[in-house]
Design goal:
Growth Hormone, Chain: A, globular, mainly alpha, 80% helix, 2 domains
Length: 427
Amino acid sequence: MDQAVPSDNMPTITNRESKAQLIKAAASNLISALTGDMFSMAMGLMLLDRTHSPISFGIDMIITPIVSLLLMVPIGNLVDTYKHKHILIVSSALRILLIALFYFTLPLFPKNTILIPVVILLSGISVSVNINSTCYNSAVHELVNSNNIQKLNSLTQSAMALSMVVSPLISVGVYSLLGFDFFILIEIASNLISFCIMLSMKFHYFTEHKEQPSHEQSQLHKFKLAIDYIKKIKVIKYVILIGLVFNFFYAAISIGLPYVIKVQLHLGNGPLGIMNSLFAFGFLAGSVLSMAMSNVKYKYKFVLPVALFNLLFILLGFILMQKPTALTLNILGGALVAFMALIASLLNVAVQVFIQKNVENSMLGRINSLLVAINTSSMPVGIVVFTFIFDVASNGGVVYLVSGIIMMIYTFIFIPSLLSFFKQKGI
């Protein structure tokens, strides 16, 4: 089995410095995630009011994967070429400027052209978020020591999960009282705060110098080096492929449950609301739990959750096949969805930490950029595929049952190689 060996010239960062960085990162992530989700929700409400179009809440889902795929190569190369803090300063400053310009120019666009500034803004924000996310994920060794990498990723995901729970509750009421302009100003203020926090963070750079821009190597050639690296380190390829399939099949939850519950089982909005809430709380619980799993071996925090997730998928299908009552679905289906979200949360952190600890620092930007593109594009593809499948399937439970079996067969192909690698590395 090929082994991935990180750079051996990592900067020395004390536990005290790491804890200070963790507090700053947690504060920045929570502010950014909460206000960002609120802004996105308010944007959808504003567009719905002005255009009366169902696409109001779906523009982001269209723009994000397109941006990720189109800019996967240049963003990955950018992050691996220049100092991370410099990239973050430029990217964050441009995002603040773009949101400010949007605030002042929005009144100039009538209802029939409102989508023009919205698409421009969302595209710009998507580029900036993509760059910042790739940059932070690639800079973990410069922010905290190895003992705190798991905590950093867990805190980042916890902030996202908490915003999933809180932001919908706040957005609708505040939007009704204060309107969309208030959310734009809040987004500008929160970005300024996060920008100041980022400026105060110390990036401990590696002893080797970053690559200098070379006209002799094309963008594609530099990115191809990362692809070759993944091919050489087979275990990384397996982890990426498992993540690709999981994100694809995960679309069956987001697109399938509302259809099965409301159209096929005729149970109304009650069970759907309960399951959505339990999903969000399960994801948050998994993010918090992952902070205590730094020393847990990977066969327990990666391989075991993968197997359990597949099993829960199958059980959910079996329950839906029985055409349950609303009470049964709330109890059994809700519990399964909550555990699936918890496991998905644990897996997200485990995969990110594994990549950060087992990929050469000089390749992290390109490989993280590839991961972002895969994660953001496989879900929309899954939504398209499962929309068709659920439309033609008379029993949605069968779709979940078969999907779970396919995932189990697929993932178990890679598990022996993963277990062998984890045992060989002692992780």
